[in-house]
């Protein structure tokens, strides 16, 4: 780099700082990527994908980690960009092919990272100021970001290696020492504050100090509600005396009133409701085991069970329960929540609740269950 540029750069903007913040950022991004892929595959399972039904907290922890690591990555990315900022404009901008590759990968990397973190954050706040479909775009861009990161790491490995060999804060008190310590400390502190600010939506002990975790314990029966019965347009049919749950197993079909469901053997399970947005709350659910209800209608011989809601159309109107979860003893058609009849907004007359599933797949206001 020309001496003129180097001279103007604050000593805190050293490769020693950039490399160290980069490692923390890399860890956060790796956790975010893996947990994000898991959540995506549960919702859109490829043929090879298998997800266990136990321990029941698995998805809650995985998705909590996804949102927390994503939020933690935001201040780390800002500090990382700050620490290398003047170098982004070092000349020549283009230069030889390797340099060009490095430049190009950084442009794609920075762009895709900012996109992922911003859309993810807004999504977890249920704010959608864009026109594309969040899930597919967020998923596709994850691969772009990881590809660019791989190229960036490969190109930068020698620089990172040298930078890490030197202490970030050198013992001889040159002018950069204090500022480097401040920058590193600030990066870690900001990341910690950001993490704690959202962690409370899934870590009960942190609930009170988590200012960015508003949807953690509010709503009827101690559980938040994302969409009410009125918003879903089901309030009338859910309370209709003519309500029936239609259950089909192979060639056989049966209809159940809510009273008929309540007359079947009931099971209680303590299961978290864990939304993809990162909040999760554990609750006591009572109802009929999915496998028992299917067994009451016909012979379940394997495969997905498809659940449909009284709600028409859209993302939430149906979900598929894989075989590993159909047979689980704590996969329930819930009639009761925390000792009371299910609130209308939580899915009355009945809803699906199964372990280790994203909230979006826990279909409320069931109208039918089908195994073909
Ligand atoms: N029919 C239907 N089921 C639904 C939804 C919905 O909007 N409609 N929301 C889903 C989402 S995203 C979550 S997180 C949980 C929330 O359940 P709760 O409202 O009882 O807390 O229900 C799921 N089931
Ligand atoms: Mo959700």
What is this structure's SSE topology?
Elements: H1 3-8, H2 15-43, H3 58-88, H4 97-124, H5 134-165, H6 175-199, H7 229-232, H8 235-239, E1 245-249, E2 252-256, H9 258-263, E3 267-274, E4 280-289, H10 290-297, E5 305-309, E6 318-321, H11 323-326, E7 332-337, E8 340-341, E9 351-353, E10 366-371
Helix pairs in contact: 2-3, 2-5, 3-4, 3-6, 4-5
The structure holds ligand MTE and molybdenum atom.
Can you give a write-up of this model?
It is a single chain. The protein has 372 residues and is of the alpha+beta class. The chain is elongated and about 75 Å long. Strand 3 and strand 4 (280-289) form a beta hairpin. A five-stranded mixed beta sheet has the order 2-1-10-5-6. Strands 3, 4, 7, 8 and 9 form a five-stranded antiparallel beta sheet that branches. It is built from eleven helices and ten strands. The protein folds into two domains: 3-206, Fumarate Reductase Cytochrome B subunit; 222-371, Sulfite Oxidase, Chain A, domain 2, CATH 3.90.420. It starts with a helix and ends with a strand. The mean pLDDT is 89. Bound molecules: the ligand Nc1nc2c(c(=O)[nH]1)N[C@H]1C(S)=C(S)[C@@H](COP(=O)(O)O)O[C@H]1N2 and molybdenum atom (MO).
